[in-house]
Every structure is written in structure tokens, then in C-alpha cells.
Design goal:
The chain is mainly α. Helices cover 72% and strands 0% of the residues.
């Protein structure tokens, strides 16, 4: 069988498993690259090459630093302090919740942020007699959009960066995502404080899934200890995060991004902010293995010409010389629809190599197309299963599926228009 056809068959099976989640996502990704090796599409040295990718190292280091912020209680302390100072006015409280969540989600786990802040927000709402649903939905929304500001804010950003690297193309910088992430965050924030809040249902706090919340906290590295937290360790973890971010911003030639991240992770352990086992536990291995596995699939698609086959089919359906604006808009919609029903990481991993092939086939720079795909995968507002933050607030907010549709679809459309307009300004097609 032709290697391109073999690759497409493997991709089709992986896509089915991603959507249905019959087996874990990471297992699907690693099985896909393993199958490509067994079938002779990829040489043995390339099958698991994604695991040695510098972006994997970067992501792993930042996971550990983020876990230290949660373990020491710093992230929770910052969030709680800001939220409590906002008072009990519905709009002011919503603004404070969204702002602090956006900032924290940009540099740490958005799921962990929601899990840590949700009990506090429910308590404030009950005391102030504000329907909990009015504040919990904005919390989840802010966590999703805040992750788009940095490379490590959300897995899709890492996925599209890795796809570019796998194709031998220039990649995105750590803070480059902020060019679209910050405007989007501002747009969503203003929308929710004005028009969006009127679409929110008025439900009192429902039963919180304590196990799910605890699991989310543990995944992010948050401590379950009721004992007072060490303020010294809070300061240390905060300074480590700040130092790493500054190093990344300065783009020092001797300190690449992955070196800064690993150095910060090491310091977190040496200073006692995290124990060794806690550092290992703080790494999201699902994302790591999914990323690494799909990098190999992306490599196979490029080398065998499978990506070009898909690209030619899509471009042919769009007519002669399709506009890159139209292409970006269509791919954004596809990615955004998929992410409402499947993992945003999986949807980005599935579409990124295809997006590169399509962009190259019409002679435009793949970067704006990949940026649109990655951002679209994070605009997961319209269903409760679209992203873990949405799922976490489902029970406590007494939300229905239609509540998410009513609130989320307008924001998906808003982000679609914003991205089609803003992305080409910072990443021209030609």
C-alpha cells in the first residue's frame, strides 16, 4: 500500500478514537505513531522522536513550576485575595473573577485555577445572595480564554508550535500568542460584563462534585493540606515563576525557553516548594504523550505526501485560488466545532499538520492558519464537555446543556470574527 494512503488510514482511525475516546487520548496518539513505525511508514528513529522535542521539555518544566504555585498556595491566595476585595456587587465580582482567572490561566493550569477558586466564589455568592451561576460560568470562560495568552497557557498552543517545528518551519515565540490572546481576553471580558451577563441563567449553587474538584486540584499540584501555608515558599515559587517569565521575555541566546523552564523546575524542588514526587505528579503526562505521538504523525503526513492529498482535496472543493482569509475562517470553524465535542488538545493535534499542508498548497504562510486553529481549539465555550473548566462548574452552577449553548455560541462567533480580523495583522499570509 502507498505510504500516503497508509498514513491517512492511521490518521482516520486516530481521529475516530479521538472523537469517541474509546481509549485514552495519549494511548491513541502513541498507538498511531507506533503503527506508523510497524507499517514501515516511519523509520524507527523517528517513531518516538517527539518525546525528545524541546517543546516537550519546555512544557514539562512549566508544568512543574505551575504545580509549585498551586502546592504552596500562591495561586489560590492571589485568586482569593482579588476576588474578596472585589466586594459583593455582581458585575464587580464578575470582573475580578474573570481578570484574575485570565492572568493565572496564562501561566498555570486553567483547570486547577477553576478548582481552587470555585469553592470561594460559591461561598461569596451565597453570602451576598447572588445566583452562583452568574459567577461560575464567567469563571470557566475566563479560564479558557486566558490560556491563549502564552505558549504554555493551553495545550493547543503547544501543539501548533510543535507542528510547525516538525515541518521545519519557523515557530511561535513564548509570548507571541499574546498578540491575539490579550485582545481576545479583553473582548470576551467586555462582552461578558455588558451583553453576555444578561444571557446567564440565574441558578443557586448546586451540589459540587467534591471528587472532581479534588482531582483537578491534585492534577494541578494543589495541596489538600489544611495546615497554614508557608508564606516564604509562596514568595519563592512566585519569584521563580517571575524569573522564568522574564528570562523567556528577554530571549537570552544562552538561555533558551526550555532551559529557563527546566531551571525553574529544578529550583522549585531544591527550595522545597515541591517534593520530587510532587514535581513528577504535577506534569500532565497525557498532554506530553499526545503531543509527542502526534508530532510523529505530522512528520509522516509531510514525508509521505498524505497531508498534500488532504490539502489538494480541500483546496479543490474551495475552487481555484481560494482566499487565505476564507481558508483561515473555514479552518477556524472546523476546529472550533470539533473542540466543543472532543478534547481541544486532540482537535489541535488532528488539524495542525493538515492546516500546514493546506496553507502551503495555496502559497501562504502556515503561521496565521496554525494560530487560528490553535485559538479556535481553546474557544471551547458552547458545551459542558468541551473543556474541564466547563465540566467542573456544571453541577455547582446547576447549568443545562442549553445554558452553555446560549452563552457560548455568541462568544465563539465573536472570537471567530476577531481572529479572522486580528491574526493577519500580526501574521501576514504572504
Amino acid at each position: 500500500m502507498d505510504p500516503a494512503i497508509t498514513t491517512l488510514c492511521v490518521l482516520a482511525v486516530a481521529a475516530f478514537l479521538f472523537v469517541t475516546e474509546l481509549i485514552p487520548l495519549a494511548v491513541t496518539a502513541m498507538a498511531a505513531c507506533t503503527a506508523l513505525g510497524i507499517l514501515g511508514v516511519l523509520p524507527s528513529k523517528q517513531v518516538y522522536a517527539g518525546l525528545s522535542n524541546s517543546t516537550v521539555v519546555l512544557f514539562g518544566g512549566m508544568f512543574v513550576i505551575g504545580a509549585a504555585m498551586f502546592k504552596t498556595g500562591l495561586a489560590e491566595a492571589i485568586g482569593v485575595a482579588v476576588v474578596k476585595k472585589a466586594g459583593t456587587g455582581e458585575i464587580r465580582l464578575m470582573g475580578a473573577i474573570m481578570l484574575v482567572t485570565i492572568v493565572l490561566s496564562a501561566v498555570s493550569s486553567n483547570t486547577g485555577t477553576v478548582a481552587c477558586l470555585m469553592p470561594v466564589i460559591i461561598g461569596i455568592c451565597q453570602a451576598a445572595k447572588i445566583p452562583a451561576s452568574k459567577e461560575l460560568m464567567p469563571l470557566a470562560i475566563a479560564a479558557n480564554v486566558g490560556g491563549t495568552i502564552t505558549m504554555i497557557g493551553t495545550p493547543p498552543n503547544v501543539i501548533v508550535t510543535g507542528a510547525l517545528a516538525a515541518a521545519g518551519l519557523p515557530t511561535f515565540g513564548f509570548f507571541e500568542f499574546a498578540y491575539i490572546g490579550i485582545p481576545l481576553s479583553v473582548i470576551i471580558l467586555v462582552w461578558m460584563l455588558t451583553i453576555g451577563r444578561r444571557m446567564l441563567p440565574a441558578h443557586n449553587a448546586g451540589e459540587m462534585d467534591e471528587e472532581a474538584v479534588q482531582a483537578a486540584k491534585e492534577e494541578a499540584g494543589a495541596s489538600d493540606d489544611k495546615a497554614p501555608k508557608s508564606k516564604t515558599k509562596m514568595w519563592i515559587s512566585g519569584l521563580i515563576m517571575l524569573g522564568v517569565v522574564v528570562c523567556m521575555a528577554l530571549e537570552l541566546p544562552t538561555v533558551p525557553l526550555q532551559t529557563a523552564a527546566v531551571t525553574g523546575a529544578i529550583l522549585c524542588v531544591i527550595t522545597g516548594c515541591l517534593k520530587e514526587k510532587e514535581a513528577y505528579a504535577g506534569i500532565d503526562w497525557v498532554t506530553i504523550f499526545l503531543f509527542a505521538g502526534m508530532l510523529s504523525v505530522a512528520t509522516a503526513m509531510e514525508k509521505t505526501g498524505a497531508g498534500k492529498l488532504i490539502a489538494d482535496t480541500v483546496v479543490g472543493a474551495m475552487g481555484d485560488n481560494p482566499s487565505p482569509y476564507l481558508l483561515t475562517a473555514v479552518l477556524f470553524l472546523i476546529s472550533n466545532v470539533l473542540t466543543q465535542f472532543m478534547s481541544n488538545t486532540a482537535s489541535a493535534a488532528l488539524l495542525a499538520p493538515i492546516g500546514i499542508s493546506i496553507a502551503q498548497s495555496i502559497g501562504c504562510d502556515p503561521k496565521p492558519v496554525l494560530m487560528a486553529l490553535g485559538i479556535a481549539a481553546s474557544m471551547a465555550f458552547a458545551t459542558p464537555m468541551a473543556t474541564p473548566p466547563n465540566t467542573l462548574v456544571l453541577g455547582p452552577g446547576n447549568f443545562t446543556f442549553n445554558d452553555y449553548v446560549k452563552v457560548g455560541v455568541p462568544m465563539c462567533l465573536l472570537s471567530w470574527v476577531a481572529c479572522v480580523v486580528i491574526i493577519p495583522i500580526f501574521w501576514p499570509f504572504h
